[in-house]
């Protein structure tokens, strides 16, 4: 018996069929699109994925869906998602797929954290924090084995903590946010128009470009400040860094660790492990699959 996890993104739908023992039966992705009619496309694509897997592996024990946005209190849809992928708001996947059992819906960053805590970089750790670094900055926190959701599902939006109180407001009106300090959404502005993405920035940094190095290290100092602030609030055993920027490897993790060594409060000799996400772009699919089946 297996569970099926579906992660809905603006450009791709990722899926994984996984057993209780975290054995991956099959994973993959299909291209999709955003826009006014996207929801109908998503429904058809997810139905096709489910039907194809059932032909090979039989009926799934459970199905779960991860998506950007704030999950509704009943956990069956996204209650709030404005701007990009707005049509996911209010989409009830239980009704859309016509299944006999409810299909739970999770915020995609929350689902990614659960995946990593179940069978990824923080397997077996009940206290874990995660940042996903990409165009924006997402995240989530697991405290004493419980996913922090908050009153309206807003908890875990770690990209919107302040690392510079005098900075301009970000997309949710937070001044000087962590997202604006390291997310690719602001890199062009932060580099005075020189770098549009992290890969070009890193190439220049590795080639000895002093300006690129200055931009990168300024971003990492903000990231380290954010990491230790989150550590002080949630007290994790492991801190996971994921997302596209995490693929920078040692150029990210080595200086970040040095800065955290400088900033982190370590009472009783405690030191939080900073690790790279292990499940990559499928973390959300693993997390929502395991949650839907009641394994976590």
Could you characterize the architecture of this molecule?
- By secondary structure, this protein is an alpha/beta fold.
- The protein folds into two domains: 2-111 and 283-292, ATPase, nucleotide binding domain (Nucleotidyltransferase, domain 5), CATH 3.30.420; 124-277, 2-Layer Sandwich (Nucleotidyltransferase, domain 5).
- It is built from nine helices and twelve strands.
- It is globular.
- The model has no long low-confidence stretch (mean pLDDT 94).
Topology (SSEs and partners):
Layout: E1 2-8, E2 12-19, E3 24-31, H1 38-57, E4 62-67, E5 70-71, E6 78-80, H2 93-97, E7 105-107, H3 108-119, E8 128-133, E9 137-143, E10 146-147, H4 178-182, H5 187-190, H6 198-206, H7 210-234, E11 238-242, H8 250-263, E12 273-276, H9 283-292
Parallel strand pairs: 1-4, 4-7, 8-11, 11-12
Antiparallel strand pairs: 1-2, 2-3, 5-6, 8-9, 9-10
Task: Using brief descriptors, characterize the structure shown.
21% strand, five-stranded mixed β-sheet, 2 domains, Nucleotidyltransferase, domain 5, 9 helices, alpha/beta, 296 residues
């Amino acid at each position: 018996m297996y569970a099926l996890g579906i992660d809905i993104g603006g450009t791709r739908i990722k899926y994984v069929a996984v057993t209780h023992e975290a054995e991956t039966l099959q994973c993959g992705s299909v291209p999709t699109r955003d826009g006014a009619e996207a929801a109908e496309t998503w429904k058809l694509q997810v139905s096709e994925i489910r039907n194809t897997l059932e032909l090979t592996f039989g009926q799934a024990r459970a199905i779960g869906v991860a998506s950007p946005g704030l999950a509704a209190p009943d956990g069956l849809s996204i209650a709030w998602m404005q701007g990009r992928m707005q049509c996911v708001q209010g989409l009830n996947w239980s009704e859309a797929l016509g299944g006999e059992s409810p299909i739970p819906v999770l915020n995609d960053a929350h689902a990614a954290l659960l995946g990593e805590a179940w069978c990824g970089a923080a397997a077996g750790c009940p206290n874990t924090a995660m940042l996903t670094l990409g165009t924006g900055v997402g995240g989530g926190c697991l405290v004493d084995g419980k996913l922090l959701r908050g009153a309206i599902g807003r908890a875990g939006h770690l990209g919107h903590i302040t690392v510079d109180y005098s900075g301009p407001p970000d997309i949710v009106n937070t001044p000087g946010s962590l997202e604006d300090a390291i997310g690719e959404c602001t890199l062009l502005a932060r580099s005075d128009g020189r770098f549009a993405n992290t890969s070009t920035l890193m190439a220049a940094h590795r080639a000895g470009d002093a300006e690129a190095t200055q931009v990168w290290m300024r971003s990492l100092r903000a990231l380290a400040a954010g990491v230790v602030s989150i550590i002080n609030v949630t007290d994790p055993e492991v801190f996971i860094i994921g997302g596209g920027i995490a693929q920078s490897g040692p150029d990210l993790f080595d200086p970040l660790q040095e800065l955290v060594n400088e900033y982190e409060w370590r009472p009783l000799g405690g030191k939080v492990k900073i690790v790279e996400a292990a499940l990559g772009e499928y973390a959300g699919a693993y997390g929502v699959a395991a949650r839907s089946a009641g394994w976590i």
